[in-house]
């Protein structure tokens, strides 16, 4: 069953000489329970794609269907409600509310929806995230890894159809990065949670079941894990070759 269906998605910024085609006729499906990494160089369009999937930006044309809803057809109010109830967002810089403690940050999306938090789900998430002894702590009393765990818990409090992570380890050291990815993997496996990660990190990409590569606003590769290893190795060789060529050119000058 497809939880996400993207068809002919385009995103254009500006007009005339300042026109930028951030996404060009992008189409793909993601099934319920997949763990997908989206990779590509800076400016390739991957963050634009994630923002559209997350309902924080709208496409110029094309469709984005999440759990049976074409979100590009929703007005601003309905889109905000849909996003809050169906999409979990994890950011590189956590985006926690500094005056709220761990429990309050995690339950904020539920309270904004006018509902009472599910205590059983909250306790389960807190336990799995290792935050049981930190519920009354403010963000500035937590390490970076702990803050990102709170961000993950907040994103999962509504049992979202999609969990979207934009460079979730970009602000963490290698040890905390491994722990965060392991947690996302655990929720993916244990709860059949669909996870999409934007990353520059090849190791994180290779932990996914599927890797989608975007270059110049278009999908250039869509691979399973084994194929992705070959593709990423080839991309690294091409990058090294380009750097060497640039170095030779510089010396000639």
> So what's the overall shape?
globular
Number of strands: 10
* Radius of gyration using CA atoms only: 19 Å
Largest sheet: 6 strands, mixed
- The number of helical segments is 8
N-to-C CA distance: 57 Å
Strand order of the largest sheet: 6-7-8-3-9-10
How confident overall, as mean pLDDT?
87
Q: Please state the structural category.
A: alpha/beta
Describe this protein's structure:
This protein has 253 residues and is α/β, with parallel strands linked by helices. 41% of the residues lie in helices and 25% in strands. Strands 6-7-8-3-9-10 form a six-stranded mixed beta sheet, with helices on both faces. Strand 4 and strand 5 form a beta hairpin. The longest helix has 28 residues. The protein is globular, with a radius of gyration of 19 Å. The mean pLDDT is 87.
Which features does this protein show?
253 residues, alpha/beta, six-stranded mixed β-sheet, four-stranded antiparallel β-sheet, 8 helices, 10 strands
């Amino acid at each position: 069953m497809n939880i996400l269906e993207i068809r002919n998605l385009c995103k254009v910024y500006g007009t005339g000489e300042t026109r930028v085609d951030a996404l060009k006729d992008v189409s793909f499906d993601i099934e319920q329970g997949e763990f997908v990494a989206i990779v590509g160089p800076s400016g390739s369009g991957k963050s634009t794609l994630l923002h559209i999937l997350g309902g924080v930006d709208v496409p110029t044309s094309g469709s984005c269907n999440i759990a049976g809803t074409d979100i590009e057809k929703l007005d601003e109010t309905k889109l905000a409600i849909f996003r809050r109830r169906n999409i979990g967002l994890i950011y590189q810089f956590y985006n926690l509310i500094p005056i709220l403690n761990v429990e309050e940050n995690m339950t904020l999306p539920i309270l904004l929806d006018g509902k009472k938090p599910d205590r059983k789900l909250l306790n389960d998430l807190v336990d799995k995230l290792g935050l049981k002894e930190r519920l009354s702590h403010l963000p500035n009393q937590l390490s970076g890894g702990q803050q990102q765990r709170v961000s993950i818990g907040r994103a999962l409090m509504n049992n979202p159809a999609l969990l979207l992570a934009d460079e979730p380890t970009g602000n963490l050291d290698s040890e905390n990065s491994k722990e965060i990815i392991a947690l996302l993997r655990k929720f993916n496996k244990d709860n059949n949670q669909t996870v999409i990660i934007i990353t520059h990190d090849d190791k994180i990409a290779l932990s996914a079941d599927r890797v989608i590569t975007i270059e110049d606003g278009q999908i250039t590769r869509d691979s399973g894990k084994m194929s992705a290893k070959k593709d990423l190795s080839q991309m690294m060789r091409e990058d090294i070759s380009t750097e060497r060529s640039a170095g030779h050119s510089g010396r000639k000058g």
